Structures are given as C-alpha cells and as structure tokens.
Amino acid sequence: MPQPENSPSPSSLGFLLKVLGLSTILSAAIKYLGPLLPISGSNALALGVVLTPSLVLGGLLLLRGQRQAG
Predict the structure, then answer these.
(1) Residue ranges of E strands in the chain
(2) How many C-beta neighbours within 10 Å does residue 44 have?
(3) What is the pTM of this model?
(4) pLDDT at 13
(5) Cβ–Cβ under 8 Å, residues 6 and 14
(6) Cα–Cα–Cα angle for 52, 31, 48, nearest 5°?
(7) Using one digit for the tens of pLDDT, what is the confidence trace for 19-70?
(8) Cα separation of 11 and 15, whole Å?
C-alpha cells in the first residue's frame, strides 16, 4: 500500500528519533555535568562558545564549495 505524500518514510522517522534522543542526552549532560567542570566565566569564553560552531560550519562549507568548483 503506497504512503501518502506528506507522511514521513520510516527511515526519516528513525533518523528524527535518533536526533531527538541524542539531543536529550546531550542536554541532560550539559545540565547536570556542566556545573562540575572547573570553567570560569569570561567574555572571551562566551564569545568563543557562540562563534566557534558558525566558524567551523562556514569553513567546512567553504571547503566543500571549493572542491565542487574545482
């Protein structure tokens, strides 16, 4: 029996559940284990934590674009 066009396929539903589960585990680890880490709060640390993911992703996309163009 064919699935309706708007229903997710079983593989995408499984992927979604994996991402949700890993996100929940990571969130709990940050909440409960994060305060145990001896990290002092500073403006430089906060700026680094906020900007690092964007800079890494931008760098990876730049490399990917250069590989596809060349």
Answers:
(1) none
(2) 7
(3) 0.51
(4) 87
(5) no
(6) 15
(7) 999 999 999 998 999 889 888 889 999 999 899 999 999 999 999 999 988 7
(8) 6
